[in-house]
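Subject: Sanity check before I submit

Could someone independently write out the structure tokens for this chain? I want to compare against mine line by line before I put it in a report. The sequence has 252 residues.
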Amino acid sequence: MGGRERASAVTALRRGLDLGMTHIDTAEMYTGSEELIAEAIAGRRDEVFLVSKVLPQNATKKGTIAACEQSLRRLRTSRLDVYLLHWRGSHPLEETLAGFEQLERDGKIAAWGVSNFDVDDLEELRELARPGRPVCNQVLYHLEQRAIEHAVLPWCESHHVALVGYSPFGSGRFRSHKVLTDIAKSHDATPRQVALAFLVRRPALFAIPKASTPEHVEDNAAAAKLRLTDSDLREIESALPVGRPPRTLPTL
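---
Independent answer below. Compare away.
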């Protein structure tokens, strides 16, 4: 978020905090977003669960530490709640993990995780990491892209790793299927709220929808109160099935 929508985005982020939506996700790759967030959370840092990411080309031990410190300066904070490797690159995972662990020892991050990791990557990571790490894997997940349910989600659940779904509305391409509209009417909700409620239906699942206006934030926040019935879940599963296992993990 940024540019012409900057003022609206700052207002939206603050409105989200007011409504209890405290998980804010960013990255060094998102030009200007960390500075925007710094403005939005000024005086409210302790309310926020703040996450940022290091680019894979920066993910040596020294590069990871330097990138995090730069993010902290842009965010005007002394710590991140979670720091992620944005996707797997050419640097050895051992290097990145060494940077993460140093940042954690120094109190600059509370924990670390990864993004866009498939099961093979996660298995390799598990052999290198200490117990309890990574804390999460952030992946593409929306109703028309449920490929992670084949293997990635079961792996994360069995290893107590949170799965954070990005682009839960399909990167601006959200389509309100009839099943969502019908279920929404039965709950006095919106189709987007039904979609979000479905995507966080299991304890390991989280979602991070972008919302650059207060109105969109308020619509998203209301999804937290929506409880889909078993019948609702079966209808969505039938209308929007998982599909075939993918050859590679889908990403944007």
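---
OP: Matches mine. For the report I'm noting this point. The CA atoms of residues 29 and 167 lie 16 Å apart.
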